[in-house]
């Protein structure tokens, strides 16, 4: 099934992003800070079992829950062993920040292919606010 990688344009803050990338000499530092913040939010969504819009993931079926209990697995949704949750990372290519995973089954959960759709990746409103704050800090804006 391959890697899970999706692209999101954040129109709300696109101009601010461009301004930062044109102004700041250490673009990588900006993108690293944004990447770390987004990974933290992604991890918090795993903890809360919600998609980027805050909607709860579909509950586990009684069969799956029973199977996980018998196998002494993590009972949280999408976290049987914790591998998927731990696998997300970011990479920086030029002026792009890419967040994704190489865990093959992530894509089927993200898109709902043969399993209930449980969206993992996406840009939440909270993500946008955090990105905006980071960018404004680099431009020297005060709140």
Plain-language structure description:
- This protein is mainly α and 143 residues long.
- It has 6 helices and 3 strands; from the N terminus they run E-H-H-H-H-E-E-H-H.
- A 3-stranded antiparallel β-sheet has the order 1-3-2.
- Strand 2 (89-93) and strand 3 (96-101) form a beta hairpin.
- It is elongated.
Strand content: 5-15%
Order of helices and strands: EHHHHEEHH
Question: Average pLDDT across residues?
Answer: 90
Question: What percent of the residues sit in helical stretches (DSSP H or I)?
Answer: 40-55%
- Alpha carbon gyration radius: 17 Å
Spans of at least 5 consecutive residues whose pLDDT stays below 50 are none
Quickly count the helices: 6
Biggest β-sheet: strands ordered side by side in the sheet: 1-3-2
- Separation of the first and last Cα atoms: 44 Å
Largest β-sheet summary: 3 strands, antiparallel
Q: Structural class of the secondary elements?
A: mainly alpha
Global outline: elongated
Structure summary, number of beta strands: 3
Q: Helices and strands in order, then pairings?
A:
Blueprint: E1 4-5, H1 11-23, H2 27-48, H3 62-70, H4 83-87, E2 89-93, E3 96-101, H5 106-111, H6 125-139
Antiparallel strand pairs: 1-3, 2-3
List keywords for this structure.
143 residues; mainly alpha; three-stranded antiparallel beta sheet; 6 helices
Quick structural summary:
This protein is mainly alpha-helical and 143 residues long. It has helices at 11-23, 27-48, 62-70, 83-87, 106-111, 125-139, and strands at 4-5, 89-93, 96-101. It has a three-stranded antiparallel beta sheet.
